[in-house]
Write the C-alpha cells for this entry.
Amino acid sequence: MVAVVELDHVINGSYPRGSPVLAGVRVVVRSPSDELNFGVDESYKLSVPTTGNPLYAQIEAQTVYGALHALETFSQLCTFDFNARLIELHSAPWTILDKPRFPYRGLLIDTSRHYLPVPVIKSVIDSMTFSKLNVLHWHIVDEESFPLQIPSYPKLWNGAYSYSERYTIDDAIDIVQYAEQRGVNVLAEIDVPGHALSWGVGYPSLWPSATCKEPLDVSSDFTFQVINGILSDFSKIFKFKFVHLGGDEVNTSCWSATPRIKSWLIQHGMNESDAYRYFVLRAQKIAISHGYDIINWEETFNNFGDKLDRKTVVHNWLGSGVAEKVVAAGLRCIVSNQDKWYLDHLDATWEGFYMNEPLTNIYNPEQQKLILGGEVCMWGEHIDASDIQQTIWPRAAAAAADCQF
C-alpha cells in the first residue's frame, strides 16, 4: 500500500513550514474475523482532517476487507508533486462513507485459449483492487486446453498446450491465497458438457467417439465420475461459495451421431435436448454434494430454467432482458451481457460500459436482491500475457463504477 501511495517515486522533499502534515493513518477494524465469505461487509469510513497535533487520517471498518478498500481510496486521494518531491493530498478535509452496490463484482480471465503465467494472473489480481473488483472468475479449461493438475484424474492435464503451460495444484492454491489477501475471491469454472474436447486427450473415453469429440459423453458414468473427482479436488483449493459449471453453446449432435449413445438415449426415452438437461442437472447435484452453489451460463435457464436447482445463479451473457426473467423466476443472476461488458469486443462502446445497468426493468426490491452483481469478461482467443492488462483496462474500471462503490 505504501508503494501504491508513493507511486514508486523517491520521496525526498521538505515540507513548507506551517503546512499540515499527516503523521499516519489509524485503522480500526471491528471484526476479528478475516474470513472472505461471500457478502462480507466491505463498507468503510475514511476521514482525513486538516487539524490536530499530531495529525492522523482515520479508517473505520467492520472487516479487514472494508479497511483494504478504504486504504485503496486513500491512495487515490494522494498525488506525487514532482516539483516538491512529496506526496500531497488535496482538497482536505475529507469524510468518505462507502459501501458496494453489489456483493459480486467480477472479472473473467481465460487460461484455456492462451496460457497466462502465474505472475500475470497475480498482476491482474493486483489491478482489480484499484477498482475494488472482488471476484476473479477463472475460466480454467475449455476445448483448446486443460492446463490444471487434477490429482483425482492426473491425465486430464495431458490436454494442456504443452508440458510447461500448466498449473500445479500448488500454483492454484497460491493464486487463491494471493487473491484472498487482497479481498478477491477466485471463482473456478469447468465448462460442461460442451467446450470440453481437451478432456479427452488424457481420457479418450470421455469423447462420444474418436471422430466426434464433444460434448462429453452423456451416457457414461465415467464422465460424471471425472466431474466428481474434479469438483472434489476443487473443494480443497477453491473455497469460494460458488463454482461455475458453464453449460453454454452445447452442440448435442454428436450424441445422436454416435450409435451407442443414440441407443442409450432411446433406452432412457430422451432426445438430445432432454440429455442436455439431464447432464446439467446431474453435474449440479455433484457440485452441491461438495458444498457449492452453482453458476451456469444463461442457456441453461433459457432451455429449462424451471428445472434448475434453486441454488443456481444464472450468468447472463447473450443480451438484455434475461436478468429480469431470471429474478422473476426466483433465481439469482450475474450480468455480463456481451454487447456491453465483454472486453474482447473491442467495438463495445465506452457509453455501453458506463451506462449498462444490472437492475434494468427490475423494480421489485426483493427481486433486485437476486441480482448479485456484474462481471466483465476478458476472453482469451485474441489476447495473451503480452497485452491482457491493456485490454482489460481502463474499460473494466467503467463497468466497476456501475457495479460497486
User: Anything to note?
Assistant: The first strand starts at residue 22 and ends at 29. The first helix runs from residue 2 to 6.
